[in-house]
């Protein structure tokens, strides 16, 4: 799968998710477990430049159940159709075994509108749930 954290090492994974239509972003947060070190979400701009919109460093174990969130006022942060969020998670695996889902996770969540159905981006593919 997408998530394979090698033993005795620090490693990162990143993935892109494009918005299928224009949305107002109201909040953004992240989800990892106890081995998380850093969490970052950036907007991919023209020519591939990145603008960080959510950054947690260091990630703390208690964030697994209550992660910091960044909030925006209505109209403050609008993403156009096709614009991309890039999520990057970094972990430390101090064990002698590889870690993978569901022992660790890298999940960006948020609230946007207008939204008729929930959206889910898995490995860069947008799935719309009825």
Description:
This protein is mostly beta strands and 130 residues long. The chain is 0% helix and 52% strand. The chain has no helices and 10 strands. A 4-stranded antiparallel beta sheet has the order 1-7-3-4, with no helix packed on it. The two termini are 26 Å apart. The model has no long low-confidence stretch (mean pLDDT 93).
Quickly describe the structure.
This protein has 130 residues and is mostly beta strands. Helices cover 0% and strands 52% of the residues.
Poorly predicted segments: none
Helical fraction equals under 10%
What's the SSE pattern? EEEEEEEEEE
Major sheet details: 4 strands, antiparallel
Q: Compute the number of helices.
A: 0
Indicate the radius of gyration in whole angstroms.
15 Å
In total, the number of strands is 10
Fraction of residues in β-strands: over 45%
Question: In terms of topology, how is this protein built?
Answer:
Layout: E1 9-18, E2 23-31, E3 36-44, E4 50-56, E5 69-71, E6 78-79, E7 84-93, E8 107-113, E9 118-122, E10 125-129
Antiparallel strand pairs: 1-7, 2-5, 2-6, 2-8, 3-4, 3-7, 9-10
Tags for this model:
four-stranded antiparallel sheet; mainly beta; globular; 130 residues; single chain
